[in-house]
Amino acid sequence: MIDLKQRNIIVTGASGGIGRASVIAFAKAGARVIMLDRDVAGLNDTVEIVQSNGGSVHAIPCDITDEQAVKAAIDEVVERFSVLHGAFNNAGIEQSHLPLHEISAEAWDRIIKVDLTGVFYCMKHQVRAMLGAGGGSIVNTASALGAVAIAAASDYVAAKHGVLGLTKAAAVDYGPHGIRVNAILPGIIETPMILRLSQEDNFANQFQALRDRHPIGRFGKPEEVAAAALWLLSDASSFVTGSSLSVDGGYLAI
Ligand SMILES: NC(=O)c1ccc[n+]([C@@H]2O[C@H](COP(=O)([O-])OP(=O)(O)OC[C@H]3O[C@@H](n4cnc5c(N)ncnc54)[C@H](O)[C@@H]3O)[C@@H](O)[C@H]2O)c1
Predict the structure, then answer these.
(1) Which of 9, 50, 200, 245 is 20 to 30 A from 232 in CA distance terms?
(2) Which numbered atom of ligand 1 lies nearest the CA of 42?
(3) Residue 232 CA: distances (Å) to CA of 86, 166, 182
(4) Is 174 known to be catalytic?
(5) Which fold has domain 8-248?
(6) Calpha distance 9→78 (Å, rounded)
(7) Which residues line the pocket of ligand 1, CB cutoff 6 A?
(8) Which tens digits make up the pLDDT trace of 193-238?
(9) Nearest Cα to 32, choosing from 86, 92, 98?
């Protein structure tokens, strides 16, 4: 079993599907997990689930689009727990489901701000903490749509391609400082985000075709993404940096 004992690990988007499953997996592997999310009720639910299984968690309500809030959260981690060993930057929102020429500037800004700029803010302050501690491991949740496109998702596709660029650039900058930076590219994973999308009129009809695009014959589970993030955060992946790990049932292989 992969071990994260004595590690302090941040997970953003910890109230939701992939984030919550990851908090549970990392705590089971022995980590102290620091959870960031703007959904406070969801954070409390995750705390209850983890603590009832004997895991160690600490919740910090935080909107990742607010740089000062992100900085304060990471300062709190360093003050309370001394060292930040790893981070899973996973919080994100879905596309506005419109063709490019119908996307408002406000919708574009909102999606880029959460899915790309929010990841930048988190990485910036996590790196700051890790530089003082001799290294660490950062994992960013991109998407298969960080590598290819689907219809009516240019805001999300652009943001997730940006996350891959940010991941590679940071791996180059901080490899010499012992900080590894990798991305995960999930295919469709059964989470509240996908439930919301499946209820959208202009997206629901794409669902069967999307399922058929997964050669493994089904959508993924949040725990399957969590397992990949756990490996990338651990010493088991010590020579892996700047990489994009597809966890997509073969979506990108077609
Ligand atoms: N579910 C999928 O099929 C799928 C596929 C590829 C990539 N992803 C990516 O995986 C990540 C997790 O998605 P999910 O499916 O678990 O979604 P989800 O909606 O179930 O969970 C996302 C979590 O992020 C939090 N969040 C959103 N905006 C935030 C903000 N500004 N500040 C702090 N927290 C914020 C939400 O409160 C929620 O708890 C996202 O980055 C998403 O783009 C998901």
Answers:
(1) 50
(2) 39
(3) 10, 17, 7
(4) no
(5) Rossmann fold (3.40.50)
(6) 11
(7) 12-13, 15-19, 37-39, 42, 63-65, 90-93, 114, 118, 141, 143, 186, 188-189, 191-194
(8) 988 888 877 666 777 888 899 999 999 999 999 999 999 999 999 9
(9) 86
Q: What is the pTM of this model?
A: 0.98
Show me where the domains of the chain are located.
8-248
Q: What's the order of all strands across the beta sheet hosting 86-89?
A: 56-61, 32-37, 8-12, 86-89, 136-141, 179-186, 244-247
Q: Which amino acid is at 65?
A: T
Q: Collect all residues with Cβ–Cβ distance below 8 Å to 136 and sequence separation of at least 6.
A: 84, 85, 86, 87, 126, 129, 130, 178, 179, 180
- β partners of residue 56: 32
